[in-house]
Design a protein that fits this description.
The protein has 151 residues and is mainly beta. The mean pLDDT is 88. The protein starts with 20 loop residues before the first strand and ends with a helix. It is 9% helix and 38% strand. The strands form 4 sheets. It has a 5-stranded antiparallel β-sheet, with no helix packed on it. It has a two-stranded antiparallel sheet with strand order 5-6. It has one domain. Bound molecules: zinc ion (2 copies). The site of one zinc ion (ZN) has 7 residues, from loops.
């Protein structure tokens, strides 16, 4: 496990523009990964536009909904800002997000999450929120913590 201190904080401007990258998540049925590409970043460096796409695997249950089209492309707004106060979850220090557009990052692996992240609201949201992809939530023991209560 590598994230002992919140040394690397990524903003949208830290992602390469016009380059397709693997997202943190994928299709819930066929497990094909989502991909994203940052297409525009505003002058703050925090918010911008992304394109997302996914190439479903043959036989994927979700394909029927899309006219046998294996590819889905869409556009969305991405971006986030950090809260000042770090929090510690299962021994890992993480900086909560203060605000977030439709698409934000996993605060552990820093891939963007195209679908639904696991969100932990800190202090009823006053302390921001921790967004994680499910594999990272599992790795960090957050899922166990949610299932079994705090140990
Ligand atoms: Zn699929
Ligand atoms: Zn992650």
């Amino acid at each position: 496990m590598s994230l002992e201190q919140p040394s690397i904080l990524k903003l949208l401007k830290d992602y390469p523009v016009q380059t397709w990258l693997k997202a943190a998540d994928g299709c819930e049925y066929c497990k094909a990964p989502y991909e994203f590409r940052v297409t525009w970043i505003d002058e703050t460096g925090c918010f911008g536009d992304v394109e997302t796409r996914i190439q479903h695997r043959e036989g994927c249950m979700s394909i029927a909904e899309y006219d046998e089209n294996f590819c889905e492309d869409s556009h969305d707004v991405a971006g986030w800002e950090f809260h000042e106060r770090p929090i510690t979850i299962q021994g890992h220090q993480l900086i909560p997000l203060k605000s977030k557009a439709n698409i934000g990052p996993c605060l552990h692996c820093w891939k963007l999450i195209v679908g639904v992240p696991l969100i932990l609201f800190i202090d009823q949201g006053k302390g921001g929120e921790i967004d994680l992809c499910f594999p990272c939530a599992e790795k960090l023991g957050v899922l166990d913590q949610l299932k079994g209560g705090i140990r």
